[in-house]
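Here is one chain, start to finish.
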Amino acid sequence: MRYFPLSPDDRREMLTTLGISDSKDLFADIPPAIRFQGEFQIPALSEPEVTRRLEGLADKNVNTKSTPSFLGGGIYQHYIPAAIKHLVIRSEFYTAYTPYQAEVSQGTLQAIFEYQTMICLLTGMDVTNASMYDGATAVAEAALMARAVTGKGRILVARSLHPQYRAVLRTYLHLLGLEVVEVPWNEKGQLDLAATPAEGAACLILQNPNFLGVVEECTTASHWIHAAGGLLVYAFAEATSLGLFPSPASFDADIVAGEGQSLGMPPSLGGPGLGVFAAKEKYVRRMPGRLIGEAQDIDGKRAFVMVLATREQHIRREKATSNICSNQALCALTALIYLSLMGEEGFRQVAEQCFHKAHYLADRLEKVAGVKPVFQTPFFNEVAVVLPSDPNRLNDALLQKGILGGIPLGRDYPELGNAMLLAATEVNSKGEIDTLVQAVAEWRGGQR
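Its structure:
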């Protein structure tokens, strides 16, 4: 958006309306001692010169487009087909906030309906809402929904669930008198169900693959929580895993909540993302957000309508299932276009590349002296490895070589000490992985 300065007449009119004679009077309440005195030395540049100046400053930043990145932890670098950007910036999608007037929003409603269909196919679940803010809030809403369905106030959550998801979950629940109990992991990095009783639990929230990259024993966990009368909430932070793993429905999941950023959205410094939320049909009236359905108008023509919106903007606040007041419609549209372009086979191939490249990375790293995996358990596109010293020092060394390293795990999991989480996706070439491993080996050699 271009900047259009005010004319002198505009300025005088504004000052007269405010009852002051000079713009400096606007700062009269700021003590003179801390007020800037003098004139700002801002050079007079043309628009092309300013553009070049800003682009030059931006180029000093490290970015994942020009720098090999092995960051993961909930936000992932994937290839985004060029067609996505050109479709989502169409004005009818890009400027639309929400389809309040269904009779003039058929295109938007149909796009959301098709998104819901795609997510149901992807997860195997019966119903999907028209998206939520992000994975963290979707998981928190799943806990509230489980409490509403079961009437129980004990929420079991895997300690291996994304740390930020757990933080948002506690923020949601701490004033409601609900008990949040963390389930630890065992020596394999999977849920240690024997360490926590399931009785009285509204649900068990597990992430698959979990934050440490480990693939969970979902069937065992499902039987365990259902036997105690609770619900299974299947969470995910890497949507691409759904292209390779059995669907959450195959584990008899009751609710699915996760992050859809991998479906056509760039990392963008951590957002915006897309909250995916799906459930069994029998729980549909307890779902937060909104659902779009297909119907017929009075002429018998196909039409799309908002069939359910159990939120405070549509019904009385005391009957609302959630205070979520909007959705990520544009991000949901992006996910729909991405899945449509990739197709079932293409999406599966992306997931397979993520799997194989991460395992190639792990195999190569294991040959570096002093580096070993934290768990000897199947994983997807992320692997946690133990380093001989502070992971932050390794990241500094990698950055000097133009590589973005992994996530130090000690901050969120002190018991893991010098462990680091490294991710590889389809965009990481074999050469990039080999360069990373070589850089780790050189850093390791300098530590001795």
